[in-house]
Amino acid sequence: MPPSTSPIILVLGAGPNIGQHVARTFAAGGYRVALAARSVKEADSTDSQLNIPSDFTKVEDVVNAFERVKRVFGVPNVVVYNVSASTRTPPDEPFSLPLIDFQHDLTINITSLYVAAHQAVAGPTPTFIVTGNILNVETIPGFISQGVGKSAGAHMMWAAANAYNAKGYKFYYADERKADGTAKYRVDGDAHAQLFKSLAEDKSQREWHHTFVMGKGYQKFASSL
Fold first, then answer.
1. Whose CA is closest to 175, among 188, 156, 160?
2. Residue 80 gets which letter from DSSP?
3. Which family does it belong to (predicted)?
4. Secondary structure of residue 130 in the 3-state scheme
5. Does the annotation mark 150 as catalytic?
């Protein structure tokens, strides 16, 4: 596919598991890939991969990532928000987390996500996917800042899926589970990548709260919204 017409994905948060699997899977499907993360080096960019060093505690870095990919490749067709922060607390002391750490995590988990979704709608970018987990519907001791963040992220995707569906946008909160519906702590990067590509290429909005099982796809559980 010629570079000028190939679709574009922007991955915010390019870690070694989900982020890199998503990048490779979409690249193999003919997408140009933009990776925004602290770990990437701009000098390693190629004609088909743009690296954008980014710190998601700074909302201006989120805006910059969108502006950079637009200038170099064009408006992204898909955005994946694969960034998450969690400062652990003792299991029986959820409010022992220092305020500065709580605010740090919420900037990454909520504020920067909101800015990214705002940028995507302005794009316009038709598909926006958040890498989620079970914390929007269950509590896990020690993870209060991430749980608050995931709950807020899920709410944003829910509201956006309802509000923007008629305008051609799709929003997802993707949560990999075990077959019995319980939390999966060691998630599979390739399973996420395959699902994300399927969601991106489907013309219609599927279930916004996309609980899925590796090898089976979407599964509705009692805790699914």
1. 188
2. E
3. Belongs to the short-chain dehydrogenases/reductases (SDR) family.
4. strand
5. yes
Tokens linked to 99: 């305020």
Sequence letter at residue 69 = V
In this predicted model, what pLDDT tens digit does every residue of 193-214 receive, in sequence order? 999 999 999 999 999 999 999 9
Catalytic-role residue among 41, 58, 70, 150: 150
Q: How far apart are CA 58 and CA 178, in angstroms?
A: 34
Averaged pLDDT of the chain? 96
Q: Are strands 49-53 and 8-12 parallel, antiparallel or unpaired?
A: unpaired
Amino acid at 191: A
User: In sequence order, which residues have a C-beta less than 8 Å from that of residue 29 and are 6 or more positions away?
Assistant: 197
Question: What angle do the packed helices 99-106 and 144-164 form, to 10 degrees?
Answer: 30
Going from the N-terminus, what domains does the chain have, and what CATH number goes with each?
Answer: 8-218 (3.40.50.720)
